[in-house]
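Checklist before submission:
- one chain only
- standard amino acids only
- sequence pasted in full

Submission:
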Amino acid sequence: MGIRTVTMEMIADEIGISKRTLYEHFKTKDELVETCVQAELNRLIEKDTAITQNSSHIIETYLLFMRSHIQELRQTNYLFIKDLRQLYPSSIYCKTTEFESRIKEGIKNFIEKGKEENIFRPEVNVELATLILFEQLQLLMENGEKIFSMHYFSPAEVFEHISINFIRGMATKEGIDLIDYYYSKHRLTD
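Returned file contents:
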């Protein structure tokens, strides 16, 4: 339904409390939305930390991140993202900018480590490759509605294609073998 059409009364009814009780915890709908976004960002950071700790190789880590984000995209209504960008640009911007910086730094470290381990080709420009992947993902989030309605691709499918082709394009022969191994091991089924 998106954010715009959901009322505080609808939220109170859904969680089984009075509207008055909801307003005791959150003075405005904006405050509730911002609290929810911060909680979601915290949950994603915890999830990403667990993935990092439980994977045995950087390629496996990357592919588990990819799988995790595909699952998130499958559960997220694009209307929600659109409303966040339109209705809360300044307040949400600060929170998402910090999260995006974390993502960029993670991509950069991943590429550098892959080059050190001879998984990625030595001539790969780390800064440029990071920028390319990040901008492709931003384009997906900002123009996704147009892309998906015109071409019948789901956000998850587009994200997976961007992610897997990105690392295969940088990979050495050894890297491609590792990517194929971990990709088949952790491949999602619909």
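Reviewer check: The chain has nine helices and no strands.
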